[in-house]
Design a protein that fits this description.
The protein has about 80 residues and is mainly beta. The protein has one domain (about 1-83). The chain is built from one helix and four strands; from the N terminus they run ββββα. Strands 1-4 form a two-stranded antiparallel sheet. The protein has a two-stranded antiparallel ribbon with strand order 2-3. A hairpin with a 5-residue loop joins strand 2 (about 35-40) and strand 3. The longest helix has 7 residues, at about 75-80. The chain binds zinc ion.
Amino acid sequence: MKKVHVPTGEPAGRIVCHQCGNSKHFVEIAENVLMTTHYQQNSDGSFTPEDHTTEIFGEVKFLCGKCGADMTRFHAHFLEMSF
Ligand SMILES: [Zn+2]
């Protein structure tokens, strides 16, 4: 079972970079991503995307958007808090 690391910031639950104090900009990097998109061809020959799936086979990293510090341990919390 994976333990979710809850950040201790002000206000409670906000992620703050431990290196530069940034709490606004974050980057998520996914390795080895397979993107599949289904298209429908229309009568005029143009295509309309119908559905797409993204599968991640590699590692997912979560970094500070300012200094690039590795904050992957907060990634589970980030997923819970992104709407
Ligand atoms: Zn930082």
